Amino acid sequence: MSVRRVMGTEVEYGISVQGLPSANPMVASSQVVNAYASSTAKARRARWDFEEESPLRDARGFDMARQVADPSQLTDEDLGLANVILTNGARLYVDHAHPEYSSPEVTTPLDVVRWEKAGEQVMLDASRMAAQVPGSTPILLYKNNTDNKGASYGAHENYLMRRSTPFAEIVRHLTPFFVSRQVVTGAGRVGIGQDGRDTTPERGFQISQRADYFEVEVGLETTLKRPIINTRDEPHADPAVYRRLHVILGDANLAEVSIYLKSGTTALVLAMIEDGFIDRDLSVEGAVKALRDVSHDPTLQHLVTLRDGRRLTAVQLQLEYLDLARKYVEDRYGADADDQTVDVLARWESVLTRLERDPLECATELDWVAKLKLLTQYRDRDDLDWDDAKLHLIDLQYADVRPDKGLYHRLAAAGRIERLLDDATIEAAMHDPPVDTRAYFRGRCLDKYAASVAAASWDSVIFDLPGRESLQRVPTIDPLRGTRAHVGELIDRSDTAQALVAAITR
Fold first, then answer.
1. H-helix or E-strand containing 312?
2. DSSP structure class, residue 427
3. What is the distance between the alpha carbons of residues 244 and 7, in angstroms, rounded to a whole number?
4. Which is the most buried residue in 88, 287, 320, 419, by most CB within 10 A?
C-alpha cells in the first residue's frame, strides 16, 4: 500500500446561539441539521440505518457490556435527533450536542481534504438556512475542538486496515507517531489545561486543542478517559478481512496542508505497520504525559524519552518515521510510486525541516503556526498577556466557518494560507460523491431515487419499492465496490429504483 487506502473523517462542530449563551445545544444542532435537510427533498426521507453498528466491540477481542457503557458510547441507538444522508455520500447529524459531518469514504489524502472541506461549506449553508427560519436566532458554528470551559469535541479519522495485522503492533508503532504528529496537525490553542485557564507568560499557547483531554494510552471510550489509541472495532466492512482504525486524538484542521499531511502521513505509517516494515522501537515513556508536554511547547524543543533511552524532540521523532517511510516507498515502489505518495513524502520532509529550523516558516501551511503568528502579532501590537480575553476571542474567531468573520478564511482569501484545491472543486463535492468507493452508489441512489430510499448506512442502501411487502436491502459491504466503474452505467440506465434493484438482484 501507499497513501491510498479507504479513509474518511468525522468532525463535530462547536456551536453557539448568538446572544443566548444558555441555549440548548442539542436543540440548536437539530435546527442546523434540519434546516439543511429541508432545503432539498432528496435529504428528507432516508433515515440512517443503525442495524449493522456495533460501537461496543473492542479490537482486543471482547464486547463491552451495554449496562456498563457510558451513554455517549451507544452510537447505535436512534435517539430521534436530526440525522440525514447527503447526495455526496456523507452523513450530517447531531452527535453529543454538536452538529457533525461524517465524510464519505475516499481513497486518497487529497480527497480527504476535498470532502472534509465540502463539509465546512455544508455547515456554513446549514447555519445560514437555520437563520432564515422565522423567529430564529443566528447560530454560529466553529470548526474547533474545545469551548475552553472544560469540554472537548472530536475531529475523528477512520482508516481501513487489514484484519490480519496484530492490534498490539498497531498500538506499539502508532502511539509514538500520534504523540509527535501534532507538530504537523495541531490546530493551536490559547491556554493550558482542559479549561484553558493556565495562561502564564511562558505557557499561554499550545500546539494541539485535544492533547490535554487524553488520559490513557489504549481504550474503547471516546468522551471519558480518552485513549491515544481507540479500540472500537466497527469495520463497516467484512470483519474477516478488515478492521477500521478509529482515530480520535486529532485536531479539527482548517488548513488544507494540515488535513492532507494528517491523512497522508498516517496512511503511510499504517502501510508500514501492515507490512511489518518498521524495524526500530520508537516507543515513548509515559505517552500520555509526553503527548501533553509536546503540545505545551510551541518552541518544539521539548525532549521526549524513548524506551531505548534516547531523547528526541517531537520533530526528530517524526523524522524517524519519515526516514522509514522513504525507505519503505523506495523498497516497495521505487520509481513507480504514485504522485500523491511522492508529494506527501516531499511535503512532510519540507515541513519538518522548516519546523526544526523555525516553526514560523510554516505559517502558510499549518494551522497552529498560522494561529500563533496571528496571536503574536496582536500581542506585540497591543502588549497583551496570554490571559487577555482578546486572545481567546481571536483563537475562537480563527475557527468561525463564516468566510467574512473566520480568521482562517480571511487569511486564505488574502493568500496567506496555502490552498490545495479551488472553491469550485470543493463546492462540487458538497453534492457529488467520490467515484472510487461505495459512497458513489449511496450518493447516486440518494440523488436519483430519493423517494424510494428508506434508509442507508455505510454498508447498505435500503429501498422501499412499490409492490414489495418488505424493504429491500442492497448490501455494500465492500468499500471498493459500488464505484462509478462498477455501477455508474447501471444507475445511468435504470430510470427507477425498481429497475435498479431488479438488475442488481437478477
1. strand 311-313
2. H
3. 9
4. 88
CA distance 429 to 88: 7
Helix (H, G, I), strand (E, B) or coil at 342: helix
pLDDT at 221 over 80: no
- In order, the DSSP letters of 357-400 are H-GGGGTTT-HHHHHHHHHHHHHHHHT--TT-HHHHHHHHHHTB
Crossing angle (nearest 10°) for helices 25-38 and 109-131 = 100
Q: How many whole angstroms separate alpha carbon 399 and alpha carbon 209?
A: 12
Q: What is the mean pLDDT of residues 63-68?
A: 50
Instruction: Give the integer Cα–Cα distance in Å for 56 and 41.
Output: 34
CB 268 within 8 A of CB 109: no
For the segment 381-406, the average pLDDT, to the nearest whole number, is 95
For 420-479, write each residue's pLDDT tens digit.
999 999 999 999 999 999 999 999 999 999 999 999 999 999 999 998 989 999 999 999
Q: Nearest to residue 418, comparing CAs of 257, 188, 203, 211?
A: 257
Residue 68 has pLDDT above 60, yes or no: no
| Active-site position among 95, 297, 400, 436 | 95
Question: For residue 90, is pLDDT > 50?
Answer: yes
- Computed over every residue of the chain, the mean pLDDT equals 91
For 340-346, the CB contacts below 8 A with 24+ separation are 340/2, 340/3, 340/4, 340/108, 340/109, 340/110, 340/264, 341/2, 341/3, 341/4, 341/264, 341/268, 344/3, 344/109, 344/260, 344/261, 344/264, 344/265, 344/268, 345/268
Per the CB < 8 A criterion, the answer to whether 100 and 94 are in contact is yes
How many CA atoms lie within 13 Å of 82's alpha carbon, on the beta-carbon side? 26
Q: Is the pTM of this model over 0.85?
A: yes
Question: What is the distance, to the nearest Å, from the Cα of residue 169 to the centroid of all Cα atoms in its chain?
Answer: 23
**Cell numbers of 399, please?**
475557527
Of 78, 95, 73, which Cα lies nearest the Cα of 220?
Answer: 73
- Burial group, residue 193, by CB count within 10 angstroms (0-12, 13-18, 19+): middle
Helix, strand, coil: what percent of the chain each, to 5?
40, 20, 40
* Relative orientation angle of helices 109-131 and 256-274, to the nearest 10 degrees: 140
Known catalytic residue: 95? yes
Q: Using alpha carbons, list the distances in angstroms from residue 85 to 106, 143, 421, 446.
A: 16, 20, 24, 8
Distance CA 331, CA 328 (A): 5
Per-residue pLDDT for 70 more than 90? no
